[in-house]
Specification:
- Strand 4 (37-42) and strand 5 (45-49) form a beta hairpin.
- This protein has helices at residues 25-29, 51-65, 73-85, 130-133, 161-172, 216-227, 239-244, 275-288, 302-310, and strands at residues 5-8, 11-14, 32-34, 37-42, 45-49, 92-99, 114-121, 135-139, 177-181, 187-190, 194-199, 202-205, 231-234, 247-252, 256-263, 266-267, 299-301.
- The chain has 9 helices and 17 strands.
- Helix 2 (51-65) crosses helix 3 (73-85) and helix 3 (73-85) crosses helix 9 (302-310).
- By secondary structure, the chain is an alpha+beta fold.
- The protein folds into 2 domains: 5-121, Aminotransferase class 4, branched-chain amino acid transferase, N-terminal domain (D-amino Acid Aminotransferase, Chain A, domain 1, 2-Layer Sandwich); 130-273, D-amino Acid Aminotransferase, Chain A, domain 2 (Alpha-Beta Barrel), CATH 3.20.10.10.
């Protein structure tokens, strides 16, 4: 998947050199945090979408976990941009900070180092052909974790086990994605996406109290949709509200934004991405590629970041 360069503990190395000790806490227990970031080619080089927000969330996640990251925000900005520039055609970046090997594998061990790495690869379309047809979703039997079990607003490596199981279940049932409910039985999110429903030109999404990740693409959609003139509301959403909605779409860094055409075999609306969904997708496509002046602050040119940080 990646045979290029990886930024590992402060320097760019060949991917095969970025090795992890077998007894690392990150490998043994999922003791780490990560991000997914998109890079988009433009006429002026690669634009990295909401780089600062992703790095800030990585550091917030690490703080919640109690993981000390030995690099500053600026050093991490530089690491991401250098990695993108070192990997031709890469459009998806995965920064990760994780516990290394300590003096013991006992759960209470605290003397392990923190390793930080950034890899970049070619993602392309997360679900090929989804923009035109929409995606098929099934309700997962796996419940979305709640705060008493896990800091759900943090992107913790081990916290994605249920999401992986939900996604694999969906694929086994010939669906594209899974919908996860929370302990209250209301809608939380997808395996790695937030969800929105459209009701009479009002766009609704579950609140953070539903146990969801505070998605950066979610925040982008909320601001963008409001600027397009839609009312945007956070509210608890029942499963049947998804089925009966006029339109439904899911969003995340990897998926970007895709309309949902069915849930558990029941067609949403006309079974194709609706008018509102198409407008949101189209605007997002332009936004992330630096074509809308209002949102240019969200688009960092990799070469410019490298020059500014090194000066």
């Amino acid at each position: 998947m990646n045979d290029g360069k990886v930024w590992y503990d402060g320097q760019l190395v060949n991917a095969e050199e970025a090795t992890v000790p077998l007894l690392s806490f990150g490998l043994q227990y999922g003791w780490g945090v990560f991000e997914g970031i998109r890079a988009y080619p433009s006429s002026d080089g690669y634009l990295i979408f909401r780089l600062k927000d992703h790095v800030n969330r990585l550091l917030r996640s690490a703080k919640l976990l109690g993981l000390e990251v030995p690099y500053s925000e600026k050093e991490l900005y530089l690491a991401v941009c250098e990695t993108v520039l070192a990997n031709e055609h890469a459009d998806y970046i995965r920064p990760i900070a994780f516990g290394g090997q300590g003096s013991s594998v006992a759960l209470g061990t605290t003397d392990m180092p923190t390793h930080v790495a950034v890899a970049a690869t070619r993602m392309g379309e997360y679900v090929p052909g989804a923009e035109a047809r929409g995606i098929d979703v099934i309700t997962s039997p796996w419940e979305k974790s709640r705060w008493r079990a896990l800091p759900v607003t943090a992107k913790i490596c081990g916290g994605y086990i249920a999401s992986v199981m939900a996604k694999r279940d969906a694929n086994r049932h010939q669906a594209d994605e899974a919908l996860m409910l929370n302990a209250n039985g209301t809608v939380a999110e997808g395996s790695a996406e937030n969800i929105f429903i459209v009701e009479h030109d009002t766009i609704c999404t579950p609140p953070l109290s539903a146990g969801i990740l505070e998605g950066i693409t979610r925040d982008t959609v909320m601001q963008m949709a409001a600027d397009l003139g839609y009312e945007v509301k956070e509210k608890e959403i029942a499963w049947d509200e998804v089925v009966s909605a006029e339109e439904v779409f899911m969003c995340g860094t990897a998926l970007e934004i895709q309309g949902v055409r069915s849930l558990d075999g029941r067609l949403i609306g006309k079974g194709l991405p609706g008018t509102v969904t198409k407008q949101v997708i189209s605007t997002y496509h332009d936004l992330v590629r630096g074509k809308i002046p209002k949102y240019l602050a969200w688009c960092d040119r990799a070469e410019t970041v490298v020059k500014s940080v090194l000066i």
